[in-house]
Amino acid sequence: MSTITVTTWSLEQTSPGDLLPARAPQGDVRIVRSEVPSPEFSRFLYASVGGDILWTDRLSWPYARWQEHLDRPGVETWVAYDRGTPTGYVELEPQDDGVVEIVYFGLLPAFRGRRVGGHLLSYGTARAWDLAERWPRLPPTKRVWLHTCSKDGEHAMANYQRRGFRLFDTKAEQEPGVPAPGPWPGA
């Protein structure tokens, strides 16, 4: 099996003032928290956004694993909609000591390049900073971080940096070269 070199960049914000919001796109774009944990919906978002950029680590998760993950206090999914159609999402996950990770962020392929990504990332990052307001048992957020890699969309890194994220780590590793699964087998 062939291998590919994958570079992973980790970025962070250490103050709410670091966030540089993007302008909201024109039209009827709304961002809504998915408040009812739904493994079906979360898997749909994960597979649809990441299918063409090799998001594969959660594809084998059974229903119970999805439910367990989504039921954790502070795990939130924020979904962007364009005229009622899901366009992308941000998943937040609290960690120790007031750290929140943006675990997943992305747009469905048909909605990339429409200026929704910067707005969704801005909104999701702001929700990471105020996470403890919705989850009083969590400590106030002191740091928001994420990672992106060379398999992600070509504009991902620039979007993160334009939103005020700063690079703090870079790693390169060999991974198996596998075809992108698409949003469903054979797509």
From TrEMBL:
InterPro entries: Acyl_CoA_acyltransferase, GNAT_dom. GO terms for molecular function: acyltransferase activity, transferring groups other than amino-acyl groups. Gene3D superfamilies: 3.40.630.30. Residues 29-185 form the N-acetyltransferase domain. Signal peptide: none annotated. Transmembrane segments: none annotated. Keywords: Transferase. This is GNAT family N-acetyltransferase. It comes from Streptomyces acidicola.
